Amino acid sequence: MYSKDVPTGFPKGFLWGGATAANQIEGAWNVDGKGLTTAEAVKKAQNHLVLSMNDVSKSSIEEAIADQTDEMYPKRRGIDFYHHYKEDIKLFAEMGFKVFRISIAWARIFPNGNDAEPNEAGLKFYDNVFKECHKYGIEPVVTISHYEMPLNLTVQQNGWASRKTIEDFTRYTKVLFNRYRGVVKYWMTFNEINAIIGGYTGTGAVDNELSLTEQGQLRYQAVHHQFVASAMAVKQCHEIDPEAKIGCMLARMQTYPKSSNPSDVRAAQLQDQLNLFFTDVQVRGAYPEYMNRYFKENGIEIKMEPDDEKIIMAGKVDYLGFSYYMTSITTASEHVEKFTGNFVAGSEKNPYLETSDWGWQIDPIGLRITLNEFWDRYRVPLFIVENGLGAEDKMTLDHKVHDTYRIAYLRKHIEQMREAIKDGVKLMGYTTWGPIDLISFSTSEMSKRYGFIYVDQDDEGNGSLKRYKKDSFYWYKKVIASNGEDLD
Cα Rg for the chain, rounded, in angstroms? Predict the structure, then answer.
C-alpha cells in the first residue's frame, strides 16, 4: 500500500522483553509430580564448540532414567526459577518488560505425556507465574513445546515419530487454553520447529542407529505430525479464546551464496527453501511444491491421513515468531573450508563478520535482510523472540559485570530492526535471549551467559544462585523506556 508516510521508529505498544525456556531455567525437575523430560536426559557437553543436544541413544536414556541426580544433567537444576520466579519477574519489571516469553514444561502438566488427567500442582505453578507477571503489567508469551517433551513418550512411542503423539499433544494444549483463557494473550506452538531435522531435540525420537535415508524419513514424518498438531492447537486456541493470538517459531538460518557463481546462488536458494519450508507450511497452510522434488530425491515419503492437508490449511498461525543469531555461507563446491562454531560447523567463515566466543557469526544487517524477506513472503506480523550474545562474563569483586560487548551486539541489532520498520516491515515485538543467565541448550553450560542478570552458578552447579544486575540491565531498561530511541 502506497503511503507518503515512512515510520521513524518503533510503533507504539511495541512488545519489548526477554525469552527463556522451562528446561533451561526452572530446575525442580523432580518436584510436585513433574515427570522427566527429553531435555533432562541430555548430558552436558565435553567441548563447548561441539553440540551435545542430539547425542542420545536408547542406552543413554536408560542411564539417564536410572541416574536420579543432576550432576551430569544441568538442565535438571536450571537456575531454580521454580523457587526464584517472584524475584526474577520483579527484576524484569524493573527493566520495564512489556512481555516475558516463557515455556511450559509439558511433563509438569502431564508427567508421562499420556496421563488421563493433568497434574494440578504443575498448573498451579504456572498460575502463580502468570499472576506475578500481570502484577507488574507484563504479558506472558508462552511457548507450548520448547525443545522438551515427557521422556516417557520417547520410551513408549519414540516421540513425534508416532502419530499417536498428536493426540497426546492436543490433550495437553486443550488443558492450557482452557486454564489460561484471558490470562495468556500470546502463544507459540513449537520452538524452532526446524530443529526437528537435527533429530532427538525436536523429534523426541532416537534414530542414531538408522541410515541417513531412514533418519530423513523419520524426521520429516515427525515434523508432519507436528504440523498437524500445531494446526489443531491453533484451531483449539481460536475456539476457546478468540482474543488470543497463536504463532509459530522458526530458527532463522539466513544464508548467503559464497560467490556470484550461479551454482553458489542456487545452492544458497535451496538451503533457504529448506529453512523456510516450515514457515511456508505453518503460515501459508500448505506444503510448498519445491519440497516434492527434495523428498523424492532423498527417499522421503510423507504419510498423511485424508484430512491432514485440510487441517493444516485451517490451522494457519496468526504471527511468525523467529530466533535470529547468525548467518552462514553456502557454496555448491564440495571443497568447503569448515570452521568451528557449534551451530555453523557446515559453513564457511564469512570474512566480513566477527564471531562470538562460541564461533557464531555476528551479522546485524542480516537481521534487517531476514525481516524484509519474511515480510515480503508472508505478510503477517513478525516477532523476534530470540536474539542475544552468549559470552563468558566475568564478575568483579564488587559484583559488577561490565558487558559492553553485549550492549554493542544488541544495539547494532536493534538499529537494524528500526531500519526494517522504516522499510515497511510490521514488527510486533522483540524478546532477547535470555534476559537472565541460564543453562545453554546446545551444550548445557552455565558459563555461556546471555543475561542482563548474572546468576551465581558455575558449570558444575556450584554457587549461591544470587542474582546481580549487569551493565546491560541498566542499558536495556533505558532502551525500553525510550521505545528503542535511546541506544547509547
Answer: 21
